[in-house]
Amino acid sequence: MKIGDNDWNLAPFGQHVWRGRMETGQLLALARAVKEAGGQLVALWGSDDRHLAPDTQAQPAPLASRERGGFSIHVALLTGSGLAWASCALPADAPAYPDLAHIFPQADRMQRATFDLLGIRATDAVDDRKWLRHGAWPADVFPLRKDFDPGRPPTRDTDAYPFIRVEGEGVHEIPVGPIHAGTIEPGHFRFSIIGERVLRLEARLGYTHKGTEKRFEGMDLDTGAKLAGRVSGDSHVAYAWAYCMAVERAAGSGVPERAAWLRALFLEIERVANHLGDLGYLGNDVALSFGFMQFWRLKEDWLRLSAKLFGHRYLFDRIVPGGVAVDIGDAGRAELAAEADRIEAEVRSLKAIYDEHATLQDRFANTGIVKPELAARLGLTGLAGRASAQAWDARAQFPQAPYDQLDVGMATHRRGDVLARAEVRFAEIHESLRLIREMLKRLPAGAIRAPLAPAAAVCEGLGWVEGWRGEVVVAVRIGADGRLDRVHPHDPSWQNWPLLEVGVLGNIVPDFPLINKSFNLSYSGQDL
Amino acid sequence: MATHLILQKIFKTGIVSEPAPVADPALRTREQALHAEILKVFGQAVAIRHVDAGSCNGCELEIHAINGPHYNIEGMGVKFVASPRHADVLLVTGPVSRNLEVALRRTYDATPEPKWVIAMGDCGCSGGMFGESYASCGKVSNVIPVDVEVPGCPPSPTALLQGILAAVSAGGSVSGA
Fold it and tell me: Distance (Å) from the C-alpha of residue B71 to the closest C-alpha of chain A?
């Protein structure tokens, strides 16, 4: 794979994905080349490979013998030709790799989490504070190591965390959370303010860390799909699909054409449901409860139809390794298409009201701005990224079946404020409804599930799906026993949480809930 | 003109709220002393504080849903409040992560007596897919006393409402709801 002037040791690994192993020095050079070419770092994670026999670890490129039996650091880099998954073998003693956060700032928290969970250190990183570890396990214990003792009693250490303090006359702090006033997930926000203006916001997350990655270890592949779907419940379809894509890639199996189309249908249904809910809450947060009630009426109708047609309001467990668990008949197709038409008309009439509503426009416009240059520098991604002119959408640029036959239109904006993030949601609802109608019309006939080829040796796969919030990446390694050995699910919230801190700067504290809702990031997805 | 459009939309939409479901006392796991006496004081109005103790956010989707127009919970006397100090009921979701264990206990302690705790979802009732581990305490009742358990992944809005009504209906009989 060529990036910049160099040809990198990366081989095709499924559609639009490249894979290779390299030395750590080369990884640094690769990261620089990707950055220079306008790419981004999407994910960074580690793995404990000490239990793997040297020959089984050698997929796809052989390792130098001195590196056998250690750890690995993995990165997924977004480039003009797809996603590059590069890995470096690290020694068993004091595993370390060069800091990547000085090239891609979004790597910072991923590197800190990788240390907390695996003890793999980023050398020369500016920020080496803990991230996912609070007080439940000591600093010298690493839960994702294979020799971690699950029976060891949890510690109750005091959870001291050095926030960066802003000092000066008139500056004071507002600590918020972890338990918030609304029905949202837990996290801690430390505001440093002067008057009502935010001088600095620092988030402390990890409160919902529930050991998801450890839980995958030793699981059978079908159960793993269920757990993957529960990494972040609002993105169930995206995670379940990305996981299944990874498992199917690892096993070298395909899925029936109809199953691929149904998966995409589910993904667009999930996108519409979430966007409807967010547009309602955005209205609510500027005291337009009419907007909340109207959008949540539509969302409820939409969810009920999913329950009626597919047996679950949020389509939980409808995507399974090898295909999907539920089909749609002719009557269901007609009903869903008719509902898509109705929702579309209703959303248009509500959009007209949002456009006309002076208070709403006043609160939305120029609030929580992330300018395109900053978004590019810090790696803002997904829906929020597209609202700040970061034109990446895997469905449009790197389409997997069936998106390669649907010509997905990408919604982008340059303003980078709350209004832009609302506008992108409106545009994406219409595009998703178009895709849903199109897919219902052209749905190919045939089976909906094919058996997975049983894996005889250690194998790896990667799945990449454009969920409603942004790209969801799941990397999977299956052991020789056919059970999951290592699963890393990556949520786009990893990249976007730090940008929320930037977007809120200079705004007034009462606008924080609105700005926060316009990003609507996942806590559970990044806390794991 | 937005006001004109809003009024037009409201009249065109009409009322979508549905009748309340009945309480499901089978979801109750614990009878508190003086339950019936307390209810005489409470009447049927109840203030709920939601606590996400480590959920995947699936259950939160349904808590949002019952606040929508189909369910009309405020018409049933059910209101979500911003502080445990204002609450009669704690609605707890998720397996309790160890990173939130202390915060959950403090929230429980901050809720004035008499109080009820509803554990929502498979994770809250049993630990669900996450179970107990180095990072998870498992079910809610491993950390604080629980009165009503509403299983499901996530439980439907109707099931959730049946559980809420079970918590605050007269001890042992549905008729008090």
Answer: 10
State which residues form the domain around B60: 22-172
Strands B46-52 and B89-93: parallel
Q: What is the pLDDT of residue A147?
A: 93
Would residue B160 count as lying in a domain?
Answer: yes
On whether residue B50 sits in a domain, the answer given is yes
A294 CB neighbours in chain B (<8 A) are 9, 13
Q: Does B10 touch chain A (CB under 8 A)?
A: yes
Say what the pLDDT of residue B51 is. 97
Count of domains for chain B: 1
| Spatial CA neighbour of A243 closest among A476, A77, A44 | A476
- Decide if A294 and B65 are in contact by the 8 Å CB cutoff: no
Give contacts of A527 with chain B, Cβ < 8 Å. Answer: 97
Residue type, A46: G
Write down the pTM of the prediction: 0.94
Give A290's contacts in chain B (Cβ within 8 Å): 6, 9-10
Among A297, A302, A306, CA closest to B13:
A297
Task: Look at residue B121 and tell me if it is in a domain.
Answer: yes
Quickly name the fold that domain A254-450 has.
Answer: Cytochrome-c3 Hydrogenase; chain B (1.10.645)
Query: How close does chain A come to B10, measured CA to CA in Å?
Result: 8
Please list the alpha-helical segments (H only) found in A119-206. none
Residue with tokens 């000085």: A102
Cα A387 from Cα A275, distance rounded (Å)? 14
β-strand pairing of A6-7 with A2-3: antiparallel
CATH number at residue B138: 3.40.50.12280
Instruction: Give the closest of B54, B61, B153 to A234, CB-based.
Output: B61
Nearest chain A alpha carbon to B137: A210
Q: Which of residues 139-168 of B touch A (CB under 8 A)?
A: 153-154, 156
Select A2-123's CATH number: 3.40.50.2300, 3.30.460.80, 3.10.105.10, 3.90.1070.20: 3.30.460.80
Angle between helices A257-284 and A512-519 (to 10 degrees): 170
Q: Which residues of B touch A230 (CB under 8 A)?
A: 56, 58, 128-130, 153
Structural domain includes residue B10: no
DSSP A168: S
Q: Is B130 in Cβ contact with A152 (below 8 Å)?
A: no
Calpha distance A153→A500 (Å, rounded): 36
pLDDT single digits (tens) A295-331: 999 999 999 999 999 999 999 999 999 999 999 999 9
C-alpha closest to that of A246 among A452, A107, A86, A393: A452
Spans of all domains in chain A? 2-123, 168-208+491-528, 254-450
d(CA A169, nearest CA chain B) in Å: 31
pLDDT, tens digit (0-9, with 9 covering 90-100), for A465-510: 999 999 999 999 999 999 999 999 999 999 999 999 999 999 999 9
